[in-house]
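Our collaborator T.R. sent over the components below with a one-line note: 'Predict the complex.' Nothing else. No constraints on interfaces, no templates requested, no preferences about which chain binds where. So this is a plain run: every listed entity goes in together, and whatever single assembly comes back becomes the starting point for the next discussion.
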Amino acid sequence: MALDTERQKIQHLLRRAGWGYSASELKEYLALGLQGSIDRLLTPESVDDSATEALVAGLTADPYQNRAALLTAWHLRIVSTKRPLLERMTYFWHDHFANSIDTVGSPAFMQVQNDLFRARAFGRFDEMLTAVSRDPAMMVFLDNRLNVRSAPNENYARELMELHTLGEGNVYTEKDIQEAARALTGWRITLESLTKEQLEAKRFPLPTGVVLVPSRFDSGRKTFLGITGNLNDQDIIRRLASLPETAEFVGAKLWRYFAVPDPTPEMLDRTTKAYFDSNYSMREVVRTILTSEEMYSDEAYRWRIKSPVEFVLGFLRSLGMVSATGRAISHTKAMNQVLYDPPGPQGWSKSGAGWIASSTMLARANFAYDVTRLDGPQGQVVDAPALLRTLGLTGSAGQIVDGLADLLVGGDLDGENRQTLIDYLGGETHFNFAEAQRAGTLHGVLYLMLCMPLAHLA
Amino acid sequence: MPNDETFFDRPIDRRSFIKGGMAFVSAATAMPPAFLRATFDDNSIPIAEVTTEAAAVIGRRVLVVLQMAGGNDGLNTVIPLNDRGYFSARPVLAQNPESTLPLEGGLAFNSVMTGMKRLWDERRMAVILGVGYPNPNRSHFRAMDIWHTASTTDVTGNGWIGRLMDTTAHEKDSAWRVANVGNELPRSLFADSVFVPTLSSIPSYVLSTDRRFPKDSYRRLQTFAQLNARYAQDLAIQAEYGGSLAFVSQTGFEAYQSTVTLQTEAKSYEAKAIYPNNPLAQAFKTAAALIMSRLGTGVVYITTGGFDTHSGQIAGQARLLQTVSDAVGTFYADLAAQDAADDVSTVMWTEFGRRVKENGSGGTDHGTATPMFVVGGGVTPGFYGDQPSTTSTDSNGDLKYTTDFRSVYASIIEQRFGVDATDVLGQSYRTLPLFA
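Returned assembly:
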């Protein structure tokens, strides 16, 4: 199967560089064309997203102070945003520099880190690394706040190379980890001071910055990946960002995230060139991928398995169910993903295969059941007959199946499965909208569309 | 990275299982069968007579595997009381010998491990000291894959348990022959011919339906099964759409089949011990429920994490070890009361131990050798292997291993499953007399 038409390519682009699409959103992007769509996705600053900001601002609890609000705020952004690629990149960095609130403890630190990922999503990679190395959540999660001259802690230095820049065992040695750990010593987080009332209210203090404490910094001579001297954190990060292996490691990850499972060396060369030509600009690396032929190749099409967050929030977005976002937390949890709580510093499954187990397939079906229930609380479940009327899908069983497939799985059902769904609706000749509404099969066909194998693929 | 590109590395060839399932789908009638009617009733689990197929495999030995992810500090788990090197390397972290739980030979359990100490006293536990492998890797993810695959060179293949299951697969095997408690399949269980259901709990292992509409619910589930079975089965469709579609379809279909089996064939189970209310203890309770359901389960895999104690280790590791020790202790108390403790062996592993010398953050960095524990059915109790020296270490200041972890695997494979370990592990390893 191939992506032949511009419509199919834009649908594919919106599944990968966005979070799926509603009918009206698809229409907007189709009007822009493929190139116009890519440009718009890559320049979020040119798109007004005040409606999403208002939704987040309207939360009754403070995301910096409350764990559920922290999650809901991001879920709302993903379901509602007009800047879908910005949230995609924020999610990419959240996974790349994976920190868990279970270890970090403070929603304030996690929201500050999330703000950082969003603000620097398309920026320079070396600047991102520096910001992350001094980010309070990261300093807690990988212990760099405890890394001192008298007794270095290697945790951050190791993952900086293994997970953030070079890849496991690539170029560096155990000795480089120890030397980098020494260069990264001495940093402390500073916090706002709290009033007595705030202390009593158990406010999570906001970080105000970081400071280098000279007595804790190891100012001795170090040798790291071929450079020697009184190295500090900037020297380590500049050195790592300047290595082609870093460009390849991060480039390969982005190729897999957006496009194909196995980028070739030639493809990696292209993103590496974009990385160095643009002074480490991630926007240009991503542009290289989204405008490549491979992005729309047979190999790219539907190989990638959606994460639970993509699956749940993407369908809420397609179905226009911003008001049901509150239920997303328990659903993605049952599918084994909670934002801000990745399983470890390596982040979540990259190919998506790790998301799929029998328990999580049942959880995905049960999410579909939950949002398509008959007579559920208003705003929490889809009103299937109303949705179909809005989409103009009332005429025949075939029209309903094709129309829902176009909205939810990018069309392209094979004939036999199309027929299976038509049969479920009572068959082409016997179909009657009012009768199907009474029997609950309009909800049922929506349920089945969300349970189809294709529904799990981006 | 763990679990990356996992299934792309292995052929998906489990069609024989699917074929049996299609027969089930097409044989279904217009009226909901008993198991579906039961699901309408608040998802309660129906009690059904065990089928002859499941009965045929009852009585088989069960292996429970507990993975303690993150790298458990072995030196503070089994404490070398007479080792001065231990005390001088760990001014902050060294355990007070007075409070430890002495075993024998100058070794003692961490003071929180009362549940495991009881199993030791009951002579139901073997402790294998200094377990590791040549040229140890200190990356969590690489090291885990080495333990999962039992290979230090190619860690992209199937798991050692998956290969064991492939080797011993039988056409009458239950769909629940191997079960993974959790939400993600560990590489240890990757297999070619055996489907491994994953469950977080038995009550949650259902497809929800609306009891007010039994006929529509039944048609929905039938259609669900058809939509998923089709892609899993049809090679032309697979070629056209690629491996991911076949993979999700197959898993979706197997989820459907295994929930049907669980709900129609599970024997009722009532815990005869009080399990603590934490995820790990509850996972062991689910394991006990599965075993006592008599579905022909031979392997149950459980994962717990958090052992990466770079800082705050005293309190952090104590909490973890106590949780593990209490969960295992409760599990065996339950099994003993059910008269099943001798059927079930449990093996506990972690991807590496930690550095001998503590760091400046009240923790320890990644290290090498660490003990393994084998509990329960058939085990010959006591110590195996030698406690590594804390002073004659490798160039990183890490322990030198004294027993290869594959010797433990080989002993389990040969002594509990009666299979030639070379067939599973690819080469032969010295076995230990772990099981009578």
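Summary for T.R.: The first strand of chain B starts at residue 62 and ends at 68.
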